[in-house]
Amino acid sequence: MYNGYLKIFYQTLFFILIVSSAPSFAKEGKNVKNTTQVEDDVVFTAEPEKKEAIFESHEKIVYNVNVRNNLGEEQAGKVGYVLLDLQDKVIKQDGIDVKVGKKTDKNFTLKIPAQSPGFYKVQLTINVTDYDDTIRRVVGVDPKKIKSETSKPGDFDQFWQNARDTLAMIPMEAKVIPQPALDRDNSNCYLVELKSYEHYTIRGWLTLPKDRTKREKLPVWFILPGYGPRGVKPIYGDDLAIFCLNVRGVGNSKDKINPTEEGYVTTNIENRYKYIYRGVIMDCLRGLDFIASRPDFDLNNILCSGASMGGYLAIATSSLDKRVKLCSANNPVFSDYRSLMGSKEWPMKSFVKYTSQKRIPLSRVMNNLDYYDLKNFAPNMKCKSLVGIGLLDNLAPPYNQYVMINSLTNKNKLFVYPNLAHEVPEQIYKYLSNWMMDEFGMF
Amino acid sequence: MPTKNINPIVVKILAIVFVSCTFLGQQAHAGAWPVRPGKVLVSLTGSYFKASRLWDRKGKSSAYADSGSFNSKGLYLYSEIGASRVFTVIVSVPYVSNTYSDTRGKSTQSSFGDAEVGGRVYLANINFKFYFAIQGTVIVPLYSDSPTQNVGYQSLGTDLRLVGSGSGSLGGDKSCYYTIEIGGRQYATGNGPFQLRSTVSYGINLDKKDQLAFSGSGVLSQSSDKAFRGNLSQNKDFSYVQASISAGRSFTKNFSVFLAYNQFVVGRNTGIGSNVSLSLINKF
């Protein structure tokens, strides 16, 4: 079903979405290795018994570990685990005595007592004659039972309807400017310029197949940007219109607003009506207005996708605007903000820093963020969705992801990657391509 | 060319299956994948079949009596029309010229053959890797019962088959696909045969333009009419297995050409023949 073009396409998309998805200042070293080793002398690996590291609350959490001893001497000592909650409080730790003969390898099983629903950190440790190491993992236990402890504001829907009404009063004034220098083999590239919420000018890149016919209506892939100033570049396809939008303050949409990378997430956060993401989400809807204005686009077949902040925007957009048929969101951020209170990770650390500098109560910001919380958008998303998450994700932690996922009422497909952080593997884009082809009848 | 690219492959599968068409009026289809709504796939195939030997009712090989031979030249127009996401309309019209000759003389029948009209419904998939469809067609003879036109059973019929198709990567630009289909065909005349039919195809996309494919197919045709006729298109009780190899090239996104050779390898009450065909396939 695939050929080289398709492979190149989803590899390109994978690269673009991942590279542009995470805030660079928020990237921190994480041990996401599946294997630890010291000069190949001893190799220590661990795999959860359940492929996705998601266990039931009535069963033990089981890890299969392997110790490969390449040394010329027997290695003796302990292999063990430390189970911690998300606040790093130790729940349980234990270990087993091991002996691994020279130039051999041995398998061991670590069984952790059953736990109540939630996510847990697991440290798998080895301490033998000539080698010590720790593999850090996260496991889920009945995560489908995780629920947010806070509710959606009563006027959430009205808040966003008001924003949409305001947007509707602003003429789009779309300009589509050919970019021959950016054309590729079978694609024309255009710069799209739109007027959006608060009369900001936003821009995006549209690519269309050169061999399209006049009567042809092209399915549309609407791609939203990850966090950071770089934004999205043109993505090229065939038999598709691909529209990559840079929302305000991102990429080539910085005319009136150009916050720093760290300051973006707190821009006007003290006012829920002025917070940058109100405009950002309206920019995404304006992008859909542009798509809907094109007679050559198939308005029944619109895929809205993104990763990290782009994933957040894809879900928020698909929730507010029913013109989207499929939604793909990988590692979506900004879910269940209040459960992140006390977190030292982005974005909470940015909120704390900002409110501290501005002498604003954090509670006021949290009240505003309730209107921007992904878990509150999720229930209204009616189109089919595909979500990919990493259990080691420190920016979009799995607990928060599951709060959002458990709020979904649509038909959705979830991929869980136990050994990945704020990223997804290339295969999910292959699946996405297949899924889109199937749903849009693009065989 | 990102997401679609199932199209060229469907085209290729179409070609592979289609080139296995013989004088017996077998029809082609494009695996289990549907055709995109609004798109039309058209294939024009020219084929030449010749048999100088035959298998008798026990499957024993022998020469035709009186140094006889049978040949069939065919021109097949086949089209698939994407009606919806899951439904594809299928139409095929063959023009056939069958000739049997021996030391006593030569007889030729030339006419439009058994047309088929029907559709294919895409049923389901397994993780977007293997696709299932069901296909049904009605067989309509386009010829009269005359000595110069009778190129088939001259009977209405129905054909129903299940189709499964999948594909995979072979690394780099190389990929593969496979199709398995099995079905039955019933002709409406009193002793019109009931036929079990199956095809297995495997193709390799060598690069973005070229492909090589192999397929095997078999027909088990049963009827109370056990007679063997030199004009093979008139035989009703027979069986055979044939193997084919084809090479194809996509010249544009929408246009491909396929050259195929197939050989009957085992059979009963039918000719031992081989077939060469050339297909031009375009998507509109």
TrEMBL record, chain A:
<feature type="binding site">
    <location>
        <position position="227"/>
    </location>
    <ligand>
        <name>substrate</name>
    </ligand>
</feature>
<dbReference type="InterPro" id="IPR039069">
    <property type="entry name" value="CE7"/>
</dbReference>
<dbReference type="InterPro" id="IPR008391">
    <property type="entry name" value="AXE1_dom"/>
</dbReference>
<keyword id="KW-0732">Signal</keyword>
<feature type="active site" description="Nucleophile">
    <location>
        <position position="308"/>
    </location>
</feature>
<dbReference type="Pfam" id="PF05448">
    <property type="entry name" value="AXE1"/>
</dbReference>
<feature type="active site" description="Charge relay system">
    <location>
        <position position="422"/>
    </location>
</feature>
<dbReference type="GO" id="GO:0052689">
    <property type="term" value="F:carboxylic ester hydrolase activity"/>
</dbReference>
<feature type="domain" description="Acetyl xylan esterase">
    <location>
        <begin position="144"/>
        <end position="428"/>
    </location>
</feature>
<protein>
    <submittedName>
        <fullName>Acetylxylan esterase</fullName>
    </submittedName>
</protein>
<dbReference type="InterPro" id="IPR029058">
    <property type="entry name" value="AB_hydrolase_fold"/>
</dbReference>
<feature type="signal peptide">
    <location>
        <begin position="1"/>
        <end position="26"/>
    </location>
</feature>
<dbReference type="GO" id="GO:0005976">
    <property type="term" value="P:polysaccharide metabolic process"/>
</dbReference>
<feature type="active site" description="Charge relay system">
    <location>
        <position position="393"/>
    </location>
</feature>
From TrEMBL, chain B:
<feature type="signal peptide">
    <location>
        <begin position="1"/>
        <end position="30"/>
    </location>
</feature>
<protein>
    <recommendedName>
        <fullName>DUF3316 domain-containing protein</fullName>
    </recommendedName>
</protein>
<keyword id="KW-0732">Signal</keyword>
